[in-house]
């Protein structure tokens, strides 16, 4: 049995056809206006909007479904091959759907199994943690108390360093002034004696001359003594 051609629809069948497309609220208007299949095929988008109150989007949807219905009718009445082809396509789609549902169910089962394994592993890890903490507490209870650290040994006092030996006293010379004074005294005595003995010179002159010579020579000896010291 083939499909009924859309041009043979009555007004009520056009209303049912619109309801199947989700336009049931607009179907009574078509029935009231007596829009049957033959009249429906002659309408334009502007007619659907202006005369039957559809929106632009609804009018385009109706026109698209009119063309689809015409194609389905032509395919059904065009021969057994096209009908069989449509049946095979529907069957393939149904089979794919069943296969897809089986795959989805298999994935859900696998996920549930994984969730069970994760829950079991989590429980085992918690039990192991409790056992580990208990073993550590028992080991600490059996461990001997810590021994106090030994006191540090007293530091040895070092003997005081011996005092440095006094530097040897070095005898210093008389110096320039002392040498000159000593030389002057000795020279004056020698000059006085020589002035008294020698003719033409008295003791006073001899003492002066001797003092001058003795002072000079005594000062030179004192200077040499300081340099050697």
Write a short abstract of this structure.
With 229 residues, this protein is mostly helical.
Biggest sheet architecture:
none
What is the share of helical residues?
over 70%
Q: What order do the helices and strands follow?
A: HHHHHHHH
Structural class: mainly alpha
Average pLDDT, rounded to a whole number, is 76
Poorly predicted runs of 5 or more residues:
none
* C-alpha end-to-end distance: 155 Å
How many helices? The count is 8
User: Nearest-angstrom radius of gyration?
Assistant: 72 Å
- How many runs of DSSP E, i.e. beta strands? 0
Strand content: under 5%
**Overall geometry:** elongated
Describe this structure in words.
With 229 residues, the chain is an all-alpha fold. The protein is built from eight helices and no strands. Helix 7 runs antiparallel to helix 8. The model has no long low-confidence stretch (mean pLDDT 76).
Which features would summarize this protein structure in a list?
229 residues; mainly alpha; 8 helices
Please specify the SSE layout and strand pairing.
Layout: H1 11-20, H2 27-32, H3 37-42, H4 45-50, H5 56-77, H6 80-142, H7 175-197, H8 203-228
Helix pairs in contact: 7-8
């Amino acid at each position: 049995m083939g499909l009924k051609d859309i041009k043979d629809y009555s007004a009520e069948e056009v209303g049912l056809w619109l309801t199947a497309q989700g336009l049931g609220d607009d179907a009574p208007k078509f029935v009231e206006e007596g829009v049957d299949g033959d009249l429906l095929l002659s309408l334009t988008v502007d007619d659907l909007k202006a005369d039957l109150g559809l929106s632009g989007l609804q009018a385009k949807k109706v026109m698209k479904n009119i063309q689809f219905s015409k194609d389905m009718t032509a395919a059904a009445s065009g021969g057994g091959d096209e009908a069989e082809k449509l049946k095979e396509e529907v069957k393939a789609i149904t089979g794919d759907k069943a296969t897809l549902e089986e795959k989805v169910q298999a994935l859900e089962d696998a996920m549930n199994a994984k969730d069970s394994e994760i829950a079991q592993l989590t429980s085992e890890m918690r039990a192991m943690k409790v056992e580990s903490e208990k073993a550590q507490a028992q080991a600490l209870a059996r461990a001997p108390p810590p021994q106090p650290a030994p006191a540090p040994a007293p530091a040895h006092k070092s003997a005081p360093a011996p005092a440095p030996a006094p530097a040897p006293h070095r005898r210093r010379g008389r110096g320039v002034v002392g040498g000159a004074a000593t030389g002057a005294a000795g020279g004056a005595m020698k000059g006085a004696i020589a002035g008294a003995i020698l003719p033409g010179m008295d003791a006073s002159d001899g003492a002066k001359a001797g003092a001058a010579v003795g002072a000079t020579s005594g000062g030179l000896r004192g200077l040499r003594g300081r340099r050697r010291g």
